[in-house]
Amino acid sequence: MKKLLGPMLYMTDAQSTDTWTFSVNLYLSGTDPTKPPPLRLMFLDRDAQELPGAVITDPKLAADFSALKSPMAGVLWKWNVSLPRAPHPTRVAYRFVPVDGATPLEGVDDVKDVVVPERGTQPRAAFFSCNGGGSAEAWKAVSKMGHPFACWEDMREQHEDATGGFHLLIGGGDQVYADSIWYASQELVDFRKLSLEKKLICELPAHFHDDMVARYVELYCERWSGTAGIAPMLARVPGLFTWDDHDIFDGWGSHEKLQASPWYRTLYSAAALTFEAFQLGGLRTADKTPRERKPGETHYLRTVRFTGDECDLDVVMLDLRSGRTSRVKSTGKTEHVVMSEAQWSALDTWRLEHQASAGSKYRHVIVVSSVPLVHLRFGQAAERVAGMMDLRDDMLDQWESIVHRGERTRLIMDLFRLAKESCCAVTVISGDVHVGARGLIRSRNPEHLAPGVAEAAIEQVTSSAIVHPPPGMLEFLGMRTLAGEGVEDLPSFIQTELLPVGADHYLRERNWLSLCVKRPTNATSRPKLWLRWETEHSPLSMQVVVEPPSPSR
Fold first, then answer.
1. Quick check: 5 and 28 in contact, CB under 8 A?
2. Kind and range of the H or E element at 20?
3. At what angle do helices 262-278 and 208-223 cross, to 10 degrees?
4. How many Cα atoms are found within 13 Å in the side-chain-facing hemisphere of 250?
5. How many CB atoms lie within 10 A of CB 327?
6. 485 — phi, psi (to 5°)?
7. Which residues, in sequence order, are CB contacts of 293 under 8 Å at separation 6+?
8. This model's pTM is above 0.90
9. Angle at the Cα of 112 (from 21 to 165), degrees rounded to 5?
């Protein structure tokens, strides 16, 4: 029995004011998927004694990759954990104890500084995106930095500070840069050299799917291991993750005709299986063995509610990749889609359930969109030029692309409808673009306004990137020259605009986001959501503060 990856903590969907529930996962070699490993998970208090009231299940199978032809072949195991919440935040530790005479597991020491939030409060969260580099040049730039994981080190220091600590880790996309997958086999290297026509009809090699699953598993084991970077936080803070293109490969969903290629669809399937296993905490198949995933057949929309005494907090993780595609209609017109109709239906169902549960408490909803709803706007001419320079997929990746603006307006309308009907404050957080930014979406549509209110607003906070280097000054100035940044008028009395972050409209350095709902200080105050960019260098003190509306009844 050998540790290949982990431990990793994952937030579960069911939360309450009295307990803190999550899972702890370990990816191991040398274990039989039909028999739980001889390990007992134990949580400890500050005196290193077994934590009273902790409820921990026996290990359950989360994913079985033991049949892969890879040195990283193994089995992912999950322990479900429920810890009591006290009237004050508590720090606990955990360890894996061998049972039945088993040999102690090497490479897994006691893990300290898991912070359980105080009873009845909302979790303090850390949000990040873009954990790596999408090209050899980007990785070289990262490696040349004196502290390539400086932002992760800052997050860990804040987490270990006795006065703070994080209860929730939110990944907004690109947690694993998988673009190197294109060089994982000679078959893929040769495929890249083919013409578009040949790529669409080229047959797959035998066992190609299993080989690609093995390569993606190896990427996770490589990129999420070690004592620096993301690994220490994964072991200490329960995570919620959505994905973006680099968790599959650069530009997935925006390559138009190539999306139908069997090669592309096979890479998607391998990426989806490993995303489920290592970012969602387990495969979505009953037997937990890897079965092919087809683009668009499922989606990864997820919602989690954190119930508090004075305020409830919902986190909505949108999936902007599984359904993203394009198709040519019989008329010759190309139709582009970001979110599948199945996901739209699921979002509508959740929105109605959320509306029905409105009551006497304040409410915040955080919507995680891997790509910003408000950012640089490139016009039709700029997108045409980008297509000539083989950058069309970069343009199509954005909500602001001219081909996605109708669907973007649909999402914005839904978020305003959610805010009014559920009597809640909606805040969007996003990543992807390698700079920090702040957007504001306003509506004067009567359907979105509460009685006596002249205008509704949704804040958007973009935090990117935590590892990927920021764009160079000349490169970014060139982008801004080609794009629009002013106020944009959308249909139905809606406007968007970018607001300054510090001295400029963009934060052109590596960053991550800390956010928390602070309890009211007196009978007349409200539980506000505070969001702050944590930067690598600049002493940025600016914060975004979101105040919820008064409860509906």
1. no
2. strand 19-29
3. 40
4. 15
5. 13
6. -130, -5
7. 268, 269, 272, 273
8. yes
9. 70
Query: Which among 125, 149, 90 is positioned nearest to 238, based on CA atoms?
Result: 125
Alpha carbons 88 and 120: distance in angstroms, whole number = 10
Q: Which helix or strand (DSSP H or E) is residue 495 part of?
A: strand 494-499
Range from 206-210, 272-276, 306-310, 330-334 carrying the lowest mean pLDDT:
330-334
Structure tokens at 547: 């105040």
Q: Does residue 366 contact residue 461 with C-beta atoms inside 8 Å? A: no
Burial bucket for residue 391 (CB in 10 Å: 0-12, 13-18, 19+): middle
pLDDT > 90? residue 522: no
What per-residue confidence (pLDDT) applies to 323?
Answer: 93
Encode 161-228 in three state secondary structure: CCCCCCCEEEECCCCCCCHHHHHCCHHHHHHHCCCHHHHHHCCCCCCHHHHHHHHHHHHHHHHCCCCC
Taking CA 70 as the corner, what is the angle to CA 68 and CA 76, rounded to the nearest 5 degrees? 60
* Nearest CA-CA partner of 319 in 334, 341, 288: 341
- At 112, list the tokens: 């300290």
Three-state secondary-structure class, residue 313: strand
First to last CA, the chain: 56
Q: What is the CA radius of gyration of the chain?
A: 23
User: Per DSSP, which regions of 33-137 are E strands?
Assistant: 39-44, 55-56, 60-64, 75-84, 90-98, 111-116, 125-128
Which tokens hold the place of 115? 């912070």
What's the rounded Cα separation, in Å, for the pair 49 and 423?
A: 44
CA atoms within 13 A of residue 342's CA, in its CB half-sphere:
13
> What tens digit of pLDDT does each residue of 23-72 get?
999 999 999 999 999 999 999 998 899 999 999 999 999 999 999 999 99
Hey, how many other C-beta atoms are within 10 angstroms of the C-beta on 524? 6
* Range 349-372 burial, b when 16+ CB lie within 10 A, else e: ebbeebbeebeebbbbbbbbbbbb
Query: What tokens does 443 get?
Result: 């509506």
Domains and CATH numbers, the chain: 1-120 (2.60.40.380)
